[in-house]
Here is the input.
Amino acid sequence: MKEVQNEELFQELDNEVAASCSGGVVSLYEHDRFQGPSLSFRNGATDLRNWNFNDKTSSLRIVGNEEWAFYREPAFRGTPVILGRGNYTATRLQQLGLPNDSISSIRRTR
Ligand SMILES: [Ca+2]
Here is the structure.
């Protein structure tokens, strides 16, 4: 059921954004260590409130060669934290400047 939800999310994003997909995905997890409800994006999210996931992310996973920008405010406001491929726990995100439950918008930078 979660997979179907994610597929719908991909489809909506593909329609919303002129698709320039290259296969990379970022997955946000509500709990640390990639546990709990999750959402996956190919292009990003202008406002995670739209996905009922605002200020919920406690860990995340980036697949692919793209870099992603993570913002603590909606609509890409504020200074982003740029991350590349990898698995990021809550502790790691905190070290990189993203406190637990603080991400509000995300986008691919390249
Ligand atoms: Ca959380």
Q: What stands out?
A: Helices lie at 2-16, 90-95. The chain has one domain: 2-108. Residues 2-108 form a domain with the Gamma-B Crystallin; domain 1 fold (CATH 2.60.20.10). The longest helix spans residues 2-16.
